Amino acid sequence: MMMTRGTSRVARLTMGGRLFSAVKGAAAESEKFPAMGVRWRSSLTLGEKEEVNNKNGEDGGNKEVVASYWGIKGEEVKKEDGTPWKWNCFRPWETYQADLTIDLKKHHVPTTFLDKLAYWTVKSLRFPTDVFFQRRYGCRAMILETVAAVPGMVGGMLLHCKSLRRFEHSGGWIKTLLDEAENERMHLMTFMEVSQPRWYERALVFTVQGVFFNAYFLAYLASPKLAHRVVGYLEEEAIHSYTEFLKELDKGTIENVPAPAIAIDYWRLPADSTLRDVVMVVRADEAHHRDVN
């Protein structure tokens, strides 16, 4: 018994030491990149990681370059002009130019019972969202994108399992939905560079995502059509929110800062692009997801 307690205490001390080292390392990296706040190594770009590791090497620390989430250095990728590619969350062949000519006013008029159920469910969710975020559109976009990336992943996962059970093709829908989830996640990665969430907003993400994931999962099992209709109407509301975001930028209420580097590379934007340009392409993405769903 005494041996077990002693071993357990040593394990707790060891884990505590590792946690302290991790937090200390994150703090050191935040000092190196003060504009980014406290960011874990998995969220840094390849160039930032190399710079941090080079600094650690100069200080006598670990010189190993960790270039991916799994701690394995990936293959070296370069841009078309030959310069190193610094992003580990997406690759050059996954970039694209958004279609800004897409119809933003298209609306699917609810006709069936499921349509009306989806429509009014989304409308009822908008009121508390407006009350909570008010006109803080940057933070609203960042938090809501943590939820918007859920439906595509859930739908793709369930269709994947269905394809396996039935020994049949998916007609391309698995990839379409997973691409949608990845695109929404990249929206989040972009707005992370613009707005820093407060502690209670981070806590809200855990709660909302936990509830929404399970609710959407059950809804998709019951009626995929209802689930997709919900996403379609959510995207219509997203278009409205980003339109209001643009109005605030045009009025000068929100500063039109330079576009984050990750957005310039992901959407192939000009080097002198601004936050307004980013909101424009994100809104176009949401319109595309609306049409798909």
Automatic annotation (TrEMBL):
Keyword presence, Nucleotidyltransferase: no
Enzyme Commission number, as recorded: 1.10.3.11
Membrane topology designation: Multi-pass membrane protein
Cofactor notes: Binds 2 iron ions per subunit.
Main location per the UniProt record: mitochondrion
Keywords: Electron transport, Iron, Membrane, Metal-binding, Mitochondrion, Mitochondrion inner membrane, Oxidoreductase, Respiratory chain, Transit peptide, Transmembrane, Transmembrane helix, Transport
Catalyzed chemical reaction(s): 2 a ubiquinol + O2 = 2 a ubiquinone + 2 H2O
Coiled-coil zones: none
InterPro entries: AOX, AOX_sf
Subcellular location(s) of the protein: Mitochondrion inner membrane
Cellular component, GO, one term: mitochondrial inner membrane
Cofactor: Fe cation
CDD domains named among the record's database cross-references: AOX (cd01053)
MF (Gene Ontology): alternative oxidase activity; metal ion binding; superoxide-generating NADPH oxidase activity; ubiquinol:oxygen oxidoreductase activity
GO process annotations (BP): alternative respiration
Family in the record: Belongs to the alternative oxidase family.
Subunit structure comment from the entry: Homodimer; disulfide-linked.
UniProt name for this protein: Ubiquinol oxidase
